[in-house]
Amino acid sequence: MFLIFHLMRPNVLPLDDIGLLNGISKNYFSGDPVSRSDAAKWRWRGLRIAVSRTWYIWRSLDPLPVEY
Question: Which of 18, 23, 45, 67 could pair with 57 as two cysteines, CB 3.0-4.6 Å apart?
Answer without folding.
Answer: 23
